[in-house]
């Protein structure tokens, strides 16, 4: 027992003197967390809270322009403007303002657009009920509503705006068709005086909600996404100082002297694992504390655990063991510190990229999403997302937790086998 305590003291002393390693473990993930959370939260607010800046040039000055103006004002994702510097802009001025980055979108309603729609509808109605033999088949005026957007705008946002405009135009067209049919019917049935308000005839309504635990009040945001991601990234970077410590003992001959001490040599590895495991737990507590205490002070949402703190602790233990076991394995197979530092760092970066830390999984090709399932960082990330975003608990995280513990057992087993083979 005294030998084991002495080993714990030695490892604690060594890692406390490794300032560069401690900075890598504690400072780097905190910086990543702050930068990514602030950046993504700003994007999130610009779309849903502040709205996308849109300039409307209404050359129609009739029903279509009114419909589009009113509809865009009422949407949550648009911040509508109809003037530039207090003046109604021309199409050219709208182009220039968007090119300067003042607006994300521009919507141009052409002159006489509503009149063209009315003529087309009246012609269509006349052909349908056969009251106008002079109506020409296919005589439909085309109305072109122009959408101008900043080159940096995401395609999904362009699709959203164009779909919204199509909805406004379809509603107007339906209204004109209904009014035209009603007018024609009144000519045959003069006593028909009832007027239906289309605005009150919505028979279908949509409700939106997140697909998470019905009792959970967690709302997805940049903090709920980034805190687990960069916490996992920081925990797995324990590989670099842990592997470096093992190689340093080999190069300095410390490992040979330790083998001459009474007691099993495995105690040295066990003591090293315990110390670095404790460091990863401290990392986890630090990141969670920052998410709870610091991030709200800089205007970001507070991290919500969803009432499943025991499940969060189990995931943290699984991640810490997996990272520590992988560090022991890298330190065993590498022969120089440069191999461990460069190889270990590159491996973690690749696993992070595959696991959805750097790039969200949903934007990856299907085959990449399948490959990502081999990354232990992905197992931890999905487990945290299950709790932080989906509001679930133990029943759904067990597959990920078992995978993390299995990865730890596998890496330690391979480490022991390699050590025995080298001794023989």
UniProtKB/TrEMBL annotation:
It is found in: Cell membrane. Its main location: membrane. One of its GO terms (molecular function) is ABC-type transporter activity. This is ABC-type multidrug transport system, permease component. Keywords: Cell membrane, Membrane, Transmembrane, Transmembrane helix, Transport. InterPro entries: ABC-2_transporter_component, ABC2_TM, ABC2_TM_bact-type. Belongs to the ABC-2 integral membrane protein family. One of its GO terms (cellular component) is plasma membrane. It is a multi-pass membrane protein. The chain crosses the membrane at residues 20-39, 227-247, 274-299, 311-333, 340-359, 397-419. It holds the Pfam family ABC2_membrane_3. Residues 186-422 form the ABC transmembrane type-2 domain.
